[in-house]
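Tip: read the tokens left to right.
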């Protein structure tokens, strides 16, 4: 790729990212009082993270079945209030054991 195109793409990406983040701050002068909008803005980071993570978690392993078992284990541990580290370790162990069992049979 030519360096010229790289810098153009980089400037466009940086400009669009900056506008998305700076435009709400520049357009809203006072505190948002609407409960619906406040709730919507509160949950945006969680939904974006889930939307980016969930498809990647399904295809990160060699098998979708092992990935689903890992996600199920992670969900169970998370619902029971385990820390993020414990949830991640449990999901990884579940996927590892599932793939070991799938290759053994």
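Filled-in amino acids:
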């Amino acid at each position: 790729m030519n360096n010229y195109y790289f810098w153009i793409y980089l400037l466009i990406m940086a400009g669009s990212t900056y506008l998305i983040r700076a435009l709400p701050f520049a357009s809203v002068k006072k505190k948002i009082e609407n409960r619906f909008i406040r709730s919507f803005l509160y949950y945006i980071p969680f939904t974006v993270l889930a939307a980016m993570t969930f498809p990647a978690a399904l295809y990160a392993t060699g098998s979708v079945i092992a990935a689903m078992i890992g996600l199920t284990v992670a969900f169970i541990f998370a619902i029971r209030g385990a820390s993020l580290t414990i949830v991640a370790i449990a999901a990884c162990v579940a996927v590892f054991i599932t793939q070991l069992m799938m290759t053994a049979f």
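The mean pLDDT is 88. The CA atoms of residues 3 and 67 lie 39 Å apart.
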